[in-house]
Amino acid sequence: MTRMVVLTGAGISAESGVPTFRGADGLWEGHRVEDVATPEAFETDPDTVLAFYDARRRALPLVEPNSAHRALARLEGAIGDDLLVVTQNVDDLHERAGTGNLVHMHGELLRALCLACGARPVWHDDLIDRPPCPACGERMLRPDVVWFGEMPYELDRIEQAIVVCDMFVSIGTSGSVYPAAGYAALAAAFGARTVELNLEPSDAVVPFDEVRVGPASRHVPEWVEERIAIHRP
Ligand code: APR
């Protein structure tokens, strides 16, 4: 039995047409992070922040999961709960591909967060018009995404899975945002084998045991098929 934690970042959704954050054409190229992805930005200019996330939410139905998302869902089909997928992505491509054992540590575009009552309703519409919260009726909904300076979701569950896993795999993330950026080192410290599948090697603090460089749509299905073959009795 091999317990696995797979951490994914924007790179896994890039070939579906969802822009990554850093680098040429990255989302942060056209925007200053502090203008759209901080609590301070939301306080000073909520319309700009809401419009930014409304545009990203509207783009979601136009993209589809790719072969990398689908491969991870096949892996879960093969090894079940021994796989936990932790994503930094706020898109819904992992769940649309069929992954169920999933943590959205940076929140979800398809949820809103009510600043009045704390509800996190599923949300598919724009927020810019200040719709009422379905739970309490107050018009204080924000995107349920984790901004810089805020605490990511389900950190205890993630860390508990990492310290007991046998293999930690990082896919399509630049490793520049903590705490996710520290997870490979944590897994290694607790004895896991660490693997990176990325378009380019990231600036890992502790080197990965294995690095496969190239597009996720190629490397992830290949790696998954190898794992499923090893798992088969
Ligand atoms: N296949 C594999 N990897 C890819 C591909 C691809 N087709 N395309 C790009 N990549 C890699 C890039 O080389 C880069 O290392 O994906 C990584 C994307 O890095 P970032 O844009 O920094 O995205 P991510 O690591 O997910 O960002 C982390 O930062 O702004 C915050 O909250 C935001 O969750 C996000 C966090």
**Can you count the helices?**
10
Our measurement of the CA-to-CA distance between the termini, rounded to an integer number of angstroms, reads: 11 Å
Shape: globular
Helix content: 25-40%
Attribute tags:
single chain; 233 residues; alpha/beta; Rossmann fold; SIR2/SIRT2 'Small Domain'; 2 domains; 6-stranded parallel β-sheet; two-stranded antiparallel sheet; 36% helix; globular; binds adenosine-5-diphosphoribose
Describe this structure in words.
By secondary structure, the protein is α/β, with parallel strands linked by helices. It folds into 2 domains: 1-18 and 64-106 and 151-233, TPP-binding domain (Rossmann fold, 3-Layer(aba) Sandwich); 19-62 and 108-145, SIR2/SIRT2 'Small Domain' (2-Layer Sandwich), CATH 3.30.1600. 36% of the residues lie in helices and 18% in strands. The chain has helices at 11-14, 27-30, 33-36, 39-44, 46-59, 67-79, 93-97, 155-164, 183-189, 216-231, and strands at residues 4-8, 83-87, 102-104, 107-114, 141-145, 167-171, 193-198, 210-213. The strands form 2 sheets. The chain has a 6-stranded parallel sheet with strand order 3-2-1-6-7-8, with helices on both faces. A two-stranded antiparallel ribbon has the order 4-5. β6, α9 (183-189) and β7 form a beta-alpha-beta unit. The mean pLDDT is 95. The structure holds adenosine-5-diphosphoribose. Residues 9-11, 14-15, 20-22, 26, 88, 106, 172-174, 176-177, 198-200, 202, 215-216 line the site of adenosine-5-diphosphoribose (APR).
